[in-house]
Amino acid sequence: xxxxxxxxxxxxxxxxxxxxxxxxxxWGDAFYRLIRNRAALVGLIVxxxxxxxxxxxxxxxxxxxxxxxxxxxxxxxxxxxxxxxxWTKFFGSKFTDPAYIFGSDELGRDILSRLMYSSRVSLIIGxxxxxxxxxxxxxxGMLAGYVGGVVDDVLMRITDVVYAFPDLLFVIIIVAxxxxxxxxxxxxxxxVIFVGIAVVNWVGxxxxxxxxxxxxxxxxxxxxxxxxxxxxxxxxxxxxxxxILAPIIVTVAFAIPGAxxxxxxxxxxxxxxRPPTPTWGVMINEGFIVFSTSAWPVLLPSMCISIVLLxxxxxxxxLRDALDPRSKM
Amino acid sequence: MLRYVIxxxxxxxxxxxxxxxxxxxxxHAAPGSPFDRNANRPMSQETIDRINRYxxxxxxxxxxxxxxxxxxLRGDLGLSFTRQRPVVDIIGQGIGTTFQLGLGALVxxxxxxxxxxxxxxxxxxxxxxxxxMLVATIGTTIPSFVIAIFLIYIFxxxxxLLPFVGWGSWQHMVMPxxxxxxxxxxxxxxxxxxxxxxxxxxxYVRTARSKGLRERTVIVGHALKNALxxxxxxxxxxxxxxxxxxxxxxxxxxxxxxxxxYIISILARDYPVIMGTTLxxxxxxxxxxxxxxxxxxVLDPRIKVR
Lengths: 329, 306
Known about the structure:
The complex is a heterodimer.
Chain A: H1 7-16, H2 26-36, H3 38-56, E1 59-61, E2 64-66, H4 111-147, H5 149-164, H6 167-177, H7 182-185, H8 190-217, H9 220-227, H10 232-269, H11 280-287, H12 296-323
Antiparallel strand pairs in A: 1-2
Helix pairs in contact in A: 2-12, 3-4, 3-12, 4-5, 4-8, 4-10, 5-8, 6-8, 8-10, 9-10, 10-11, 10-12, 11-12
Chain B: H1 2-29, H2 45-54, H3 61-73, H4 87-122, H5 127-141, H6 144-158, H7 170-199, H8 203-210, H9 215-253, H10 258-268, H11 271-299
């Protein structure tokens, strides 16, 4: 990095007898540490790849049309049922078709196209409910932590009850009981999953934010801001928020795969996204009928889930180390 | 200490009440019942009314809730909508299997996680450490049902070694227990390692060494004893995880336990069974957490329970 320093800096550094370095902000520093973590870097690349696949599976915007998915994920082809992936040809499989790179499922639908469209659902599930959770959790947590009093008491009582409920059980009850209602059927069950995940998870974020706010609220820099006349809104926004951001980012990094996993489990159990809409969980659920004779329709989505979840874990772990240098021993 | 235990036990009552209230309201807010959606067996209004009266669902919802809570206190969870039997009987039938599965998984998890965590910590930054951490990361990240699928594919379908449907013989139990225990165990491995790493850097360990104690005594008698305290606290949430994990694993392996019963009832909208199992799950999880919190106070005198 010393090479990036300007000649002037070099000279000044020489005078001061220190090594000149290009200056980096705290966040830039954290990003640099994240990128240097090999596992996190691999994770980031995998996530970027999955996101691009999801977006460009069938992209049609502003006259630009890119369609990576070779087939319609719902199109059935009777005579071409349960084709095996083409690489099995090298192991002696007679049931391959070059038109179906990853094979086809029990209804003759192209597995590759279905996997690509599935990643779209996962992407949406990873982004939308987590944003809702973050929005609610941040506002309630900051309010409870900063203002305290009744807001705080009410929040803590609610969290006690929600904490007694096992997370997944709560989501299942919400999703299952709302099936058949307009909310439950909206977007093939997508909307009610958003609701379920949001209702269960905002509490955890609110608790975390509250704790963080409590720990910085009485620090000198907050006191200083108050002393020069900053209002509560300004203090929360510009003084407290940046200082509690690091643990929140780490939490979000783990909440995204958590939400994706919840969707997969629900869909696998048959109460999540409705078939035929492809998601990895739905594919496993549907393929399980033929699993003992033909495993690929189940194995491939299972692998996709594993790879994406591992990628998120690597990035999450990397972020935690990068944002909190003290945690590195 | 006794006051703390009593306070915590009393706190379970309002929490259980709210759990019941939320589940009950959600279940009854949903439109329809298992009786009016049967296209194959059209029923006269008279029949529907009679059935509704039989199950007590013709009354206003608040009244139904009060009746339900009253019966609950007497240990009566009502009648199943789909099986024409008391919910208590149905749960009683599955609970033994679920406990067997959960206990086996917990024993397996503890048996591999604690030694692995200790070895990783003692051999920090060696190949042993890296590989066990890799296993732990995979175990915590990859969902249990996906691991189960891979195992069924290898041992059930390809090698034809283990049955993967049903319950009874030890061959049936191996895979479900392994899969269920793996996630919890992987998590416990990480905690044990972190906690052990911290313990072996403490002054009292240095003191023990400088006294000339044997390495084994230092590790087992001094470091490990303290390192296991945080591990013990995690067993509570881990048990909760095992309990909720059981309904995925039971569904996947067709184990006739409470978890599979729960999923079947949800799909069939059998609300009395859903209510009963949810309450039982919530109760078990609260008891697991309470037990561990009490244990924490007993194990570590530095912790002052309030």
